[in-house]
Amino acid sequence: LFRREKYANLPRAISTEGERAYTFEVGDIAYWSPGPDVAIYYRHDDQRIPEPGIIVIGRVDSGVETFNVTGSVKVTVELVK
After folding, report:
1. Are 78 and 43 in contact (CB under 8 A)?
2. pTM score, two decimals?
């Protein structure tokens, strides 16, 4: 999507109690509540996120360049304690 993020539809909405952001950093994992979708940002395009913004819920610490490919990628997300 926009050659800056990979996204996936969630099976149901999650909490929207987090702080809304209208910009992102490469590596951010964010919730887009109208979807409900989750996105991983892999490239910056200097564009702002439209209303209602995103809620950053995590971060990819390394290897984010892996997402900079055409088409889909398969990702497993695990909670780190």
Report:
1. no
2. 0.90
